[in-house]
Design brief:
Layout lengths: L2 H26 L21 E8 L2 E8 L10 E5 L8 H7 L3 E4 L9 E4 L9 E5 L9 E2 L6 E3 H18 L8 E6 L2 H17 L8 E7 L10 H11 L5 H12 L9 H12 L29 H4 L28 E3 L1 H4 L10 H7 L2 H6 L5 H4 L10 E4 L6 H9 L3 E7 L7 H10 L4 E10 L2 E9 L3 E6 L6 H4 L1 H12 L5
This protein binds 2-acetamido-2-deoxy-beta-D-glucopyranose (6 copies).
Enzyme class: hydrolase
Function: Probable carboxypeptidase.
EC number: 3.4.16.-
């Protein structure tokens, strides 16, 4: 073989290898057009790749913001994050909880916030997808508003459709362990979606997701366990918010046999509410934020029925009490199936909660352009909790059968509670997790972060854990970011918490 022929062969083989490699990159790479290259308000260098965009099907355009892990994106788990409501945007988690930035209020007030890196971002240890779901929430939208009417089943089916399409767009992540997480009403979204995903895997639906388990924070689960008597009354009593007298009165009025109409269950419950109504239900230790612009005397100018207008009104009304739409559901809202009235949401912003920074950032057109979201003229204004969806709450009933099914099939579960949340108090969650009857394999003990007790946990058979975070409210990482990153990364690693 002469020298030039050898050179020719070498050249041909090299070109083929390069072409193969190029093809590999082309078919295995995340969509270039989704890459986020700059973010208004942030001057530094992004510590990992950020992507944003829509996944569209059935006239629905679901918005996601995806952050590759800062540690080892090709090996670290992919975690889907969902906020609750129903109707609240997962940018709640992104902006206020475990997202990559801390948002500093801009000057003047209401102008663009300044973004600093969050040292406790969950993207430090995982690839994370923030999804606005169902369609109509946050930056997700449809040009056909009849798509804004939905329920638990359709939401789970749509999120599953989203995931299949998302992994097709990002095939390099299909082999990574996959987890589903969320809080509040996502206590419904997470198990129902997990169940859809598992059915899809069993049916051989492609791509096959490497689903491993799920996390739920202060999640609603079951109307018997999460109701006022089982959950809120013992919480309020244990936290010293109601007296022994009120507590005993509620017990005897609601569980006893009283004929005296002045001593019925609802009057006793009202007495408890008089004591706790002024508190911030998302964290009883925090002050309640009163939005000066939100309060309007709505009487005579609302489509709400009178009974709803009266909700939360007491002798000494605080402005915020008028508003009853929350990130899970209102304190006095009913825990039973029913439509979430858009009119209720329109009553004002979320109770006690200042969402100015997120609202300013996500309604800025330069931000939307940078993250590949449609402008307000197409996708609508961003709201922390959307007033445009019509959602049949609790349409899927109790989540207990889902948890039993999923855990018995080998999927890991971490059920955690900020122990100062009065919206979905830990008392109800502790009770339902215990009621599953699983064998205790790690008996109630403190867990530690930074050499301090950070909360308590009880580990059960089937890799099922109930964990509290001491001093945290409804949105746990908002209050305890360091502790949250600790339990999150230990759990994802499969290490003891
Ligand atoms: C970011 O950069 C711009 C332009 O260079 C500058 O005007 C602004 O003050 C910087 N902001 C921060 C927070 O450093
Ligand atoms: C929705 O309608 C607007 C115009 O009204 C259009 O610009 C946009 O592309 C449409 N979105 C989709 C996904 O069809
Ligand atoms: C909007 O969606 C509804 C329900 O999916 C469908 O019946 C209707 O045909 C759609 N309207 C348009 C204009 O496409
Ligand atoms: C209330 O009365 C019913 C029927 O009379 C009885 O079965 C029940 O045990 C009573 N409950 C209490 C707490 O006394
Ligand atoms: C009721 O609301 C409408 C629209 O927001 C406004 O134009 C009208 O003046 C209001 N009426 C009263 C009595 O406040
Ligand atoms: C639980 O699993 C059984 C058998 O696999 C199935 O028939 C049932 O529908 C499942 N229930 C739920 C709530 O997923």
């Amino acid at each position: 073989m002469d020298k030039s022929y050898k050179l020719y062969l070498f050249w041909v083989v090299s070109v083929c290898l390069i072409l193969n490699y190029a093809e590999l990159i082309l078919t295995e790479a995340a969509p270039e057009e989704a890459l986020i290259t700059h973010l208004p308000g942030f001057n530094g260098t992004l510590p990992s790749k950020h992507y944003g965009g829509y996944v569209s099907f059935d006239e629905k355009n679901l918005f996601y913001y995806f952050i590759a892990s800062e540690k080892n994106p090709s090996e670290d788990p992919v975690v889907l994050w969902l906020n609750g409501g129903p109707g609240c945007s997962s940018f709640d988690g992104f902006v206020y909880e475990h997202g990559p930035f801390n948002f500093e209020e801009g000057q003047p007030k209401g102008s663009l916030p300044i973004l600093h890196l969050n040292p406790y971002a969950w993207s430090k240890v995982s690839n994370i997808i923030y999804l606005d779901s169902p369609c109509g929430v946050g930056l997700s939208y449809s040009n056909n508003t009849s798509k804004y009417t939905t329920d638990d089943w359709h939401t789970a089916a749509d999120s599953h459709a989203f995931l299949l399409k998302w992994f097709e767009l990002y095939p390099e992540f299909i082999k990574n362990p996959f987890y589903i997480s969320g809080e509040s009403y996502a206590g419904i979204y997470v198990p129902t979606l997990a169940s859809e995903v598992v059915q899809g895997i069993k049916a051989g639906v492609k791509p096959i997701l490497n689903f491993k388990g799920y996390l739920v924070g202060n999640g609603v689960t079951d109307s018997d366990f999460d109701d006022t008597l089982t959950s809120l009354v013992p919480f309020a009593h244990g936290m010293g918010l109601i007296s022994d007298d009120i507590y005993e009165d509620v017990q005897s009025a609601c569980y006893g046999n009283h004929t005296d109409p002045h001593h019925d269950c609802s009057t006793s419950i009202d007495k408890m509410h008089d004591a706790i109504d002024g508190l911030n239900i998302y964290d009883i230790l925090e002050p309640c934020y009163h939005d000066p612009n939100a309060y309007k005397d709505g009487k005579g100018n609302t489509s709400l029925p009178v009974s709803f207008q009266q909700l939360g009104v007491t002798q000494r009304p605080l402005k915020v009490r008028k508003r009853m739409f929350g990130r899970a559901w209102p304190l006095r809202g009913q825990l039973k199936p029913g439509t979430l009235w858009p009119e209720l949401a329109e009553q004002g912003s979320v109770m006690c909660f200042n969402d100015e920074v997120a609202t300013a950032w996500l309604n800025d057109e330069s931000v939307r352009n940078a993250i590949h979201a449609e402008p307000k003229s197409i996708a609508g204004s961003w709201e922390l909790c959307s007033s445009r969806i019509i959602y049949a709450r609790y349409s899927s009933g109790s989540m207990l059968p889902y948890h039993k099914n999923l855990t018995s099939q080998g999927y890991r579960a971490l059920i955690y509670s900020g122990d100062h949340d009065m919206c979905v108090p830990f008392t109800g969650t502790q009770a339902w997790t215990r009621s599953l009857g699983f064998k205790i394999v790690d008996e109630w003990r403190p867990w530690f972060s930074n050499d301090e007790v950070a909360g308590y946990l009880q580990g059960y058979d089937y890799n099922f854990i109930f964990l509290t975070i001491k001093g945290a409210g409804h949105t746990v990482p908002e209050y305890k970011p360091r502790e949250s990153l600790d339990f999150y990364s230990r759990w994802l690693d499969g290490k003891p918490i």
